[in-house]
Specification:
Shape: globular
Number of strands: 8
Order of helices and strands: HEEEEEEEE
Distance between the termini: 43 Å
Strand content: 35-45%
């Protein structure tokens, strides 16, 4: 039974989700240093579609995952949603609860 306990612990550890912070950014305005301007989370609200890019009156918005912020800009991350991660915006909005299998419900 000791081996079964070790294997169970390994499976649970492998299935635990990573925690990632996201910022809503205007992807049409990229800085010369590769940074994006952070905008209000409301610009990236999911409308239930499977897209990860939202067009607005003044630009296109997307969730930017895992970047480093400096003032009102972020860089060093990605617009590709991490699979299985628990994702929360810096503003506190849950973007994706993460988990094993299943489809995420965020627009990121």
């Amino acid at each position: 039974m000791g081996t079964l306990g070790v294997i169970s612990a390994m499976v649970l550890t492998a299935c635990s989700s990573e925690t990632v912070t996201a910022d809503c950014v205007d992807v049409t305005k990229r800085g010369s240093d590769g940074s994006y301007s952070i905008v209000d989370d409301d610009n990236c609200d999911d409308d239930g579609s499977s897209t990860r890019y939202y067009a607005g009156r003044s630009g296109g918005y997307a969730w930017y995952y895992g970047g480093t912020t400096t003032g009102t800009t972020v860089k060093g991350g990605t617009t590709i949603k991490p699979s299985g991660a628990s994702i929360t915006s810096r503003g506190g909005q849950v973007v994706s609860r993460g988990g094993f299998g299943g489809r995420g419900g965020s627009g990121g």
